[in-house]
């Protein structure tokens, strides 16, 4: 009994070496041949596959993330307040907004 004939063209049944190579492919092959590059890549792959802090301690990571977000928001609010109050700008304040009033009364 013989095997059924394939309907694929010859170049698909028996692919040879790639005839056209890009510069990226050549550089990639050259880098993979370097011993020190393989060591660097191995360190990177081990680092990328590590267990994340958020996976180990999800509640702690959530609390730290919330506090960090709150602190960044407060810093941004303080910067905008100081700019609007005219502390960081010359006497005219922010262009397009009314100048801060010099009165201290309520």
Secondary-structure topology with pairs:
Blueprint: H1 10-13, H2 23-33, H3 35-48, H4 53-56, H5 58-85
Architecture overview:
With 106 residues, the chain is mainly α. Among the domains are: 20-50, no CATH class; 54-90. The protein has five helices and no strands. The chain has helices spanning 10-13, 23-33, 35-48, 53-56, 58-85. The chain starts with 9 loop residues before the first helix and ends in a 21-residue tail after the last helix. The mean pLDDT is 80.
Report on the biggest sheet: none
Quaternary form: single chain
Question: Terminal Cα separation, in Å?
Answer: 102 Å
**Content of β-strand:** under 5%
Radius of gyration of CA atoms, rounded to a whole number: 32 Å
Number of helices: 5
Care to count the β-strands?
0
Dominant shape: elongated
* Helical amount: 55-70%
| Mean pLDDT across all amino acids | 80
Which secondary-structure class do the elements indicate? Answer: mainly alpha
The poorly predicted ranges are none
Listing every helix as H and every strand as E from the N terminus to the C terminus, the arrangement reads HHHHH
Question: Quick summary of this structure?
Answer:
This protein is mainly α and 106 residues long.
What would the keywords be for this entry?
106 residues, mainly alpha, 5 helices
